[in-house]
Task: structure prediction
Amino acid sequence: MERLIILHFAVMFFCNVIYSQDKLLLMRTDSVFNSLKKIKGEVNMDVIGNKSDKREFFRIASGFKLDQGVYPYEVNILSRFETQVSDGKLVEKVNEIDISFDYHPVNIGNGRFLEFYAFAYHFSDEYLGIETKYELGWGGIVSYWSKNVNSSGVRLKNLMGNIAELTKINLKNAVDTLDKDNIPEKTAEKIYAISQTNIKNYSKWRLALLFGIFYELEHVALTDSFIDMPHDFFAASSYIKWQIRPTLEFHPGDIFSIRISPYVKMPFEKMRDEYLNKDMTVEKRLNYFVYFPVYCDFKLNEGITLSFEYRLYYDNIPKQRIFNLDDNKLLVSVSNFHHHVNSKICFSF
Result:
């Protein structure tokens, strides 16, 4: 009888220890998981003013981006605008809104190799004559992330290692095999998500290739002509297009990072189309649009980043139309390229 009582208390003590470890593991894992899951944002703004006795010019540029989500999904919202006030006139030079949703199929490869995405995009650029452009589409990304993480990734990895040591779990087994036999299922899934998010956010370098299909609706308007053109001088156009984007990201440490991700976009129909040269001769050209952004960031502290941007927009077949002026034929065309260079201070939260 005494042996049964002793055995009973021993079993209860063992169960309490295990329960306490499971509860501690859940609490610590939830804390890390929720800190990664919270909304992260960044805002920036700059104002330039010039005035003389003949004219005045002010330029206002601002933008923000929001990210929310932990592996296997993420939601991103980006907005950017540039407005110019010149001689009492307000002109919107650039306006951009990009909303995207990304999802990794957990059971394919290492869980990071393939990514699906859907996006909605609005863009206007007075320099290119693009009054408004809408894109709506989806696609996939194949990526290779380096398993070597920077200092922030090492700190997160060490934190999870300390939790594992404190709660007596095999962290590698939990990450590699999603060990649900020895760890509560929800906790095991969160440990796995934290590990994958750590590599996604803090990998020292990444190579990727994006492919997508989207519907584009666009209207262009001539704004810098000496001739007063009607608003509907160029008809609106709509196409189903495909896009491809190679990406190189380099994050050697917490301070410096660079991202290069050029897009090439082409319609499924009229991949080659007619283009009028200045002498009115016709040639066949590939109908592609290039968007080539390069981002370079220097983190000054936890909440402030110095950012340098270069963006190239290039349209190989810009909108054209022949215009009759006093019985003379004039070739009217919008600009086919726009270079954008910017440096800014970004505040993160």
Q: What stands out?
A: The chain has a mean pLDDT of 81.
